[in-house]
User: Fold this.
Amino acid sequence: MTHQQEEQTYTIGELAREFDITPRSIRFYEEQLLLSPRRTGQNRIYNNKDHVRLKLILRGKRLGFSLAEIKNLFELYDSNPDSAVQLKTMLNLTEQKRAHLRQQLEDIQMLMNELDEVENRCREELAQLKRD
Amino acid sequence: MTHQQEEQTYTIGELAREFDITPRSIRFYEEQLLLSPRRTGQNRIYNNKDHVRLKLILRGKRLGFSLAEIKNLFELYDSNPDSAVQLKTMLNLTEQKRAHLRQQLEDIQMLMNELDEVENRCREELAQLKRD
DNA sequence: CTGTTACCTTACCTTAACGTTAATTGCTTT
DNA sequence: AAAGCAATTAACGTTAAGGTAAGGTAACAG
Assistant:
């Protein structure tokens, strides 16, 4: 019984559609060494690991990280965590990122509050207008 | 008793230092119509309103908004909310921004979780190394 | 065989958000 | 008066993240 590892694969077009980006972007991420899909002839074939990576890339982007930063994180994550030095470096970096995220959370909180106020004022004024 | 409204003012250098950006950036924001300080002769004089605006600009930037978007938000915020149409437009836009922020919150949550895992793994490995 | 579709590469173009440099101006401090 | 400092304008340079156009290949449909 040959145990075929039927791993799922994707074409570049499929990924582009799924994540609502252009193939150009995906190729660009590869050019920047954030992805490295297999090939069949010329064509790129993406597997599950690539799929996950792409998702992470986009998540990182939404949070305002540059592709270079995302690449760094990948490299850290992938690097065999063998030396204490490496591990400590990693801890430092995660702490930096954490600080960044905390700042963003704070910003979001303040903005949300302001949006609430604006919205309330709007609603009141709308109500006023209706009353006439 | 002449009630002097001693409003606080700032030079461009003071603002730059306070917010840890360059004067160039502040002038650029003005060029993009996000600020419009008074002048004494050639020199720019910023008041409290400008100070608040600058803070908002930077907050917006940290959240990934473009200067153009921030400008739009300012204009909406400033526009006299007189017509029902205007108010409804505003409500729509705030809802859009809200969705954006929610997405970011979700992203941050997932990233935080992943950072936690990575960190824990690192700490365990460090402990391992020490034990030898 | 022709056309369509999806993929490919190469190469140049674009936009946002400043950085950098240069040349100038007006204090104020020595 | 000279020097130093903070401000000014103008203009060109830079970087990131793709967009876009041109030309080419492979598979398949009619």
